[in-house]
Specification:
Number of helices: 2
Strand order of the largest sheet: 1-3-4-5-6-7-8-9
Structural class: alpha+beta
Order of helices and strands: HEEHEEEEEEE
Distance between the termini: 65 Å
Shape: globular
């Protein structure tokens, strides 16, 4: 009798965990879909240093619905990576990305993001340099990077 009750409780827990995992996967897929496409870099600041507008010309971030992304200048890949996790449960939304190319290749980058209309903002701390940011700022000494992108028209 007790064994049956324990097994029933365990089964309920497994079903609840599986449902939660499915909901998390669905939420991640919705977020990745919202970020999919080509994005022109319109603002870029790292640790209080703002890149001038002429340095941003030709920088385009492409993001696919599976979470892969690449920042390119023409045919040259500046950095690339993969979104591993998002958390939309409270603002600001959080994301974790593993960089696969660039100076932080192989490292996990923790950040926050928001998509409003055709604008995407991402703020992230350099790996191992501090806590995930809680605001969209990259002031001097923060070890954060703030990037703002505008969605490009589909080809």
């Amino acid at each position: 009798q007790l064994t049956h009750a324990l097994l029933s409780s365990l089964l309920v827990c497994v079903v609840c965990l599986a449902t939660y995992a499915e909901e998390q996967d669905a939420a991640l897929q919705r977020e990745l879909q919202a970020m999919a496409g080509a994005w022109q870099v319109v603002y870029f600041e790292t640790d209080g240093k703002i890149l001038p507008a002429d340095a941003l010309k030709g920088l385009v971030m492409t993001r696919d619905p599976d979470g892969k992304f690449a920042l390119r200048r023409g045919d040259q890949v500046v950095l690339a990576g993969m979104v591993k996790k998002t958390d939309t449960s409270k603002p600001p939304r959080m994301l974790d990305c593993e960089q696969t190319a660039g100076d932080q290749a192989g490292k996990l980058v923790e950040g926050i993001y928001e998509v409003v209309g055709d604008t995407l903002r991402i703020c992230a701390v350099q790996p191992g340099q501090g806590e995930r940011p809680t605001a969209f700022t990259a002031r001097a000494g923060s070890h954060c990077t703030l990037a703002v992108y505008m969605r490009m028209p589909a080809k």
